[in-house]
Amino acid sequence: MTPTLAGRLQTRLALSLLLGVPVAVLAAIVLDTLTLGGALLGLVVITGLGLGWDLLHNALQERRWDGDWPRVFTLLSWLPEAASSWLVLRAFDAAAPLGTHLAYFTMVWGAVLLGRAVILPVLLPRWRHQGQRLAGAVPSTTVPATTPSPEAAPRQLGARTLFPRLQPTQQRLATLVLFVGVVASVVLLAPLLERDDTSPAANDPRLANGEGFQSTSKRKTHVHEDGDVHVHGPGGDAADGTAGGGAKLATWDTRARLRPAYVEFRAGRVATPLRKARMTAEGVLVTPDPLQAAWFGQGAAPGQRGPAVLIGSLDSVFAGLHHAKPGQALRVVRADGSQIDFTVDRVTEVDARSFPTQKVYGADDDPLLRLVGYDDDSGRNTIVFAHAVSMVESPAEG
């Protein structure tokens, strides 16, 4: 029986729940750059778009075909479903790296397709004959047998198949082999797409200078012709006043490059002096001493335009970064005694093999801060993204 719209939708929801959730848990374990929360969110998006795809299937089927959707089109549906789900997740800043998403989507898509083509026909034989409906199926009725006249017998049409020259049993086997091969190839090869634009934090020699990442914060920054910057938005528009003996300013010269001497982040249990990170002759960042935090000196300094990057070990100086939350305040003391106050925008945890180089180092017109905590044992990085909100002058200047 040709699948009904209700049957398609019911089957999609049931398989996404019964097979999709276990696959999401497995994918979060197998794929290093995919968290369980990200996998479940991706499953919701994939299922929602899949329901829309089923609506399109049904509409085209009623206009073009008398039977079920051709098998080759079922396999080709992988491309638009994979692309659309990644674009939706990316629009909400929740997408995994492209290769990881393709591998995960293929696992979910393959599990649903396998359940529809193999598992349900075996466990629920009547499912196929009830329009694939799992609920509200029409009870079967007995139709009186009739003997058609020879001249009225319809002409049998050949079934559409990917392998028309093979026997039915061979056709099913060939289709299964093709399906397994495609799924396995995507799952194994898709993560390779991530290697061109990501690398670990402690071994990343690259910087994006002037092109690439644009700030996504809701704050607005007005840069004056003389190089001063005024911050509007969360934490901005701070009133002039006194703090620690110096004036607290919402406008300061972002051209001034002053070495950071100390970072204090009470909520993240961070309070440590800073040293300048060393570089090899090849320009590769050397992992700092585990007992010391370091400033990436080839990037911006705290208070300058662009992201200032501070690096430390999650086993010692940055051990409390997992306590960081958006909206919390932190401060960097500079060599002249002045202080730059920052507000946390977001916190993320990534695998070192998929380090978001562009988002951490990419050029920006705003004065930003990145705290990058590394764990050599697990290969994970915790990254705190923050933006500057004010400057406290040194007591001598105030």
Word description of this protein:
The chain is of the alpha+beta class. The protein has 2 domains: 5-136 and 163-196, no CATH class; 201-392, Sortase (Sortase, Chain: A). The protein is built from 7 helices and 13 strands. The protein has helices at 5-30, 36-64, 71-76, 78-91, 98-123, 168-189, 357-361; strands spanning 220-223, 228-232, 241-243, 246-249, 251-253, 260-265, 270-276, 293-295, 306-313, 329-334, 339-351, 367-375, 380-392. Helix 1 packs across helix 5 (98-123), helix 4 (78-91) packs across helix 5 (98-123) and helix 5 (98-123) runs antiparallel to helix 6 (168-189). Residues 155-160 and 190-244 have low confidence and may be disordered.
Summary?
The protein is of the alpha+beta class. The chain contains seven helices and 13 strands.
How is the secondary structure organized here?
Layout (H helix, E strand, L loop, with lengths): L4 H26 L5 H29 L6 H6 L1 H14 L6 H26 L44 H22 L30 E4 L4 E5 L8 E3 L2 E4 L1 E3 L6 E6 L4 E7 L16 E3 L10 E8 L15 E6 L4 E13 L5 H5 L5 E9 L4 E13 L6
Parallel strand pairs: 7-8, 9-12
Antiparallel strand pairs: 1-2, 2-5, 3-4, 4-13, 6-7, 6-10, 8-9, 10-11, 11-13, 12-13
CATH architecture of the largest domain: Beta Barrel
How far apart the termini lie comes to: 83 Å
CATH topology of the largest domain: Sortase, Chain: A
Count of domain modules: 2
GO molecular function, one term: hydrolase activity
Pfam family, one: Sortase
Keywords: Hydrolase, Membrane, Transmembrane, Transmembrane helix
Biased composition (Gly residues): 233-247
